[in-house]
Amino acid sequence: MFAKFLNLNPEKQDRILNAALKEFAQKGYQNASTNEIVKEAEISKGLLFHYFKNKKDLYLFLHNHFLDIFMEEIHKKINWSEKDIFERYRDIARLKFEVYQKYPEMFNFIKNVFTEDAAEVKVDMDRRKQEILSKGYKDLFGDIDTSKFKEGIDVERAINIIFWTMEGFSNRYHNKLDALQLELINIDELIAEMEFYSEVLRQGFYK
Amino acid sequence: MFAKFLNLNPEKQDRILNAALKEFAQKGYQNASTNEIVKEAEISKGLLFHYFKNKKDLYLFLHNHFLDIFMEEIHKKINWSEKDIFERYRDIARLKFEVYQKYPEMFNFIKNVFTEDAAEVKVDMDRRKQEILSKGYKDLFGDIDTSKFKEGIDVERAINIIFWTMEGFSNRYHNKLDALQLELINIDELIAEMEFYSEVLRQGFYK
Amino acid sequence: MFAKFLNLNPEKQDRILNAALKEFAQKGYQNASTNEIVKEAEISKGLLFHYFKNKKDLYLFLHNHFLDIFMEEIHKKINWSEKDIFERYRDIARLKFEVYQKYPEMFNFIKNVFTEDAAEVKVDMDRRKQEILSKGYKDLFGDIDTSKFKEGIDVERAINIIFWTMEGFSNRYHNKLDALQLELINIDELIAEMEFYSEVLRQGFYK
Amino acid sequence: MFAKFLNLNPEKQDRILNAALKEFAQKGYQNASTNEIVKEAEISKGLLFHYFKNKKDLYLFLHNHFLDIFMEEIHKKINWSEKDIFERYRDIARLKFEVYQKYPEMFNFIKNVFTEDAAEVKVDMDRRKQEILSKGYKDLFGDIDTSKFKEGIDVERAINIIFWTMEGFSNRYHNKLDALQLELINIDELIAEMEFYSEVLRQGFYK
DNA sequence: CATGAATGAGATTTCATTCAT
DNA sequence: TATGAATGAAATCTCATTCAT
After folding, report:
1. B13 touches strand E (CB under 7 A)
2. For chain B, which residues score pLDDT lower than 50?
3. Which residue numbers delimit the HTH tetR-type domain (chains A, B, C, D) (predicted)?
4. Residue range of the domain that includes B128
C-alpha cells in the first residue's frame, strides 16, 4: 500500500511527513490543506497523490506511523520492573510530557484521534480509539501489583479511578499551559503536583 | 451587538437558531455550511449576515445562548438542599443525560467547545472552556458538605478526584454508546453503575 | 430545479447557454471544460454552480432545452396535412438541414446524445435516446397514409426500411461534408438526391 | 514507426495491446487512462512512452491492429462463391455478431471509430471512417450478382438501401441489448428477424 | 531496455461574504 | 428588513508526459 512511499529517499520522506504532521496537528483533518503540505514539503502537487491516493490515506498513514514511534519510545524507556501503579504512572507521565516538549506537533496530532470528528475519518479513528484505550491500557498497566490495595475494595474500579484522575490532572495541566500560551513545561513541578494526587489516592485505596 | 437579532420575531429567531444549532452540532464549526443553515431556516443568505457579521459570530452567539439555557435548566432542577457531593453528582449526571436524550443536538453542540479545533474559534473556545470549568465548578459544587471527609485528607484534591472520576465514567459511557451506535440511554442502569464508583470513593475518602 | 436560472435576465441566460452549448458540442461531455464555459460566458466560476449543481445537471438541462426548441420548430413548420411518408420525410429533412445550417452547434449537441459515452451521463442519455426514437417516431410518422403500400407487403418493416434509408443517406451526406470540411450545404441538391432514393423505394413498396 | 514495439517479445506485446484495448473500449479515448493501461499490462509508465510517443499514437496503432485482425477474419470465413446480396449479408451479419460475442471489447473499440469525438483523434478517425466505408464496401459487396434486380431499378441506390437497412437493423438490435443490459445474443433469432427484412426488400427489388 | 519519481497545469466544486435592489 | 445573484480564492485530485538512473 505505502511501499512506494517507504522506498523513497529518507530525507524527502521526512520532509513530507513533517509537513503533513504540522498541518494536520495545527488544523485538524478537515482544515488541513494538501496545498500547504506540498508547499512546505517542497514537492509538487502530483507527487503527494502519487504516494497517497488521497488525503484520508495520508492522514491514516501518518497516524499509524507516529503512534508506532511513540509506543516504541514508551516501551523502551519505562521501568517495567516497578509494579506499583503510582510509580508506573509517574514514569509514563514524565515520558509523555518529555515527548510533548520534544515533539509537540506529533503529540498533538496523535492526541487528535480523540477529538477528530471529520466525518470522513471518524469511523477509522473511533475504531483506533477503542484499540488504543483497551490494548494500550493492558500493555501499560496489565502487570501492576494489586496486593497493595485494601481488603474489600473493588480493585478494578479503583484502578479506573486512578486512571481518570491522572488523565484529568494531565488535561488540566495542558489546558492551563495552553491558556497561558506557554510552551515550556516544568516537568518536575508537574510530577510533584501529581504526587499529591497519588498520595490522596494511596491514602484512600492502599492498605 | 446582537440586539438586531433579538428584536426579530421569535418564530424566525427560533428557525435560525435551530437550523444553525443542527448544522454546527452535526458537522463542527469548519464543516458547517452557512448555505445549509439559510436553506434550513428558510431565510436568505443576506439576512443571516445582516444579523451576524460572520460565521464566527453566529457560532459564538449560539454557544452563549444554548449554554445559558442549559445552565438555567440545571439551576432549576437540582435539589440544592442536598449537600452530599455524591448525591449532588448523581442529580447532575441524571439531568445531563436527560438533557442529552431530549436535545442531543444542543448537547453535542455545547460539548464541542471541548473538542473544537478550527483555528478561527479555538482561542475563544479555549477561554470559554476555562470559564465553564472553574465557574461551573464553583456554581455546582461550591456548597457541598466537606465535613464528611476523613480527617487528614486533602479535601480539595479529593473533590477533584471525584470530579474526574465522574467525568471519566460519563465519557466512557458516551463512547460506548457511540461505538454501539445506540441512541437510547438506560439512565437508571447508568446511575446504578455510577453508584458503584461513588461507593469506592466513599470508602476511600469518607469517615 | 432550474427555476433560479430561468428567473435570470435573459441576456445572461443566453450567454451561459450559448457558451455551454458551444463547449459541449465541440468537445463532448467529458472533454468540455466548465472553466472555458464561464470564461466564454463572462461569469464567475461560482455562478455557474449557483445555477446548476454540477456539470452533469448543466448538460442535461441544455439537452432538454435545445431539444425542446428543436421539436417546437419542427412542429410549427411541418405541413401536417401531407400524409405521404416520402413527402413528410422530405419536409423533415429540409427542416433538419436548415436548422443545421443556422445552428450547427445546437444540432451537433443534440445529435451527440447518440454518441455520448461518458459514463456519468450515459444512462440518462440512453434513456433519452429510447424516448426520442420511439416517441419522436410516433409524433412524426404516426399519421401517414399506409393505404399507398402494395398489398401483401409488411408495412411496418417497410416503414423501418424507409426510415433507415433516410437516416443512412443523411449521415452519409453529413460525413461527406465533414470530410470536405465544408459547412455550407446545398439543400436543394441534397433534397434532389434524396428524391432518387424515395423513387426507388416507391417503386418497390407502393402500389 | 512502431518497429520498436513489434520487435518486443510477443507475450509482452499482447499484455500491452490487451490492456490498452480494454481501457479504450470501456472508456473511450479521452477517458482512458494511461495509468490504468500500464498497471493492467504490468509495465512501467516510461516503457509505454518508449514504444508509443503519446496516447494518440497508441490509440491509432491499436485501431489499425485490431481492424486488420477483424478484416482478416472476415475474408477467411465468408463464403465468397455465394453472390446473392442477402445471403452475403446474412453471412457477414452472423460473423459480426459472432465476433462481438467472442471479443466484445475488440468489437466495441473498433466500432468507436464512428462515435469518437475527442478533438485530438477526431480528424484521423473521420478519415478512417471514410476509408472503411468505401473500401470495406467494395471489398465485401463488389462482386454480388446484380442480375436478380428488377429491370428499371436503380441498382446502385437499391444496394445502398439494403446496406442502410441492415445497418439500421443491427444497430437497433444492439441498442435493444444495451438497454436490456443483456450481453448474450441469440444469433439465430437475430438472423431470422433479419430475414424478414430481406424478404420485404426482395419483394420490392428482385424480379 | 526499463524504471517510476516527478511535474504542474487543469479539472470540478464549495464557500463565506458582499452589495445593488 | 430582506433578497439572492455574484464573487473568486481555495479545496482535492488526475493526467499525459519527461528524464535521470
Report:
1. no
2. none
3. 10-70
4. 3-205
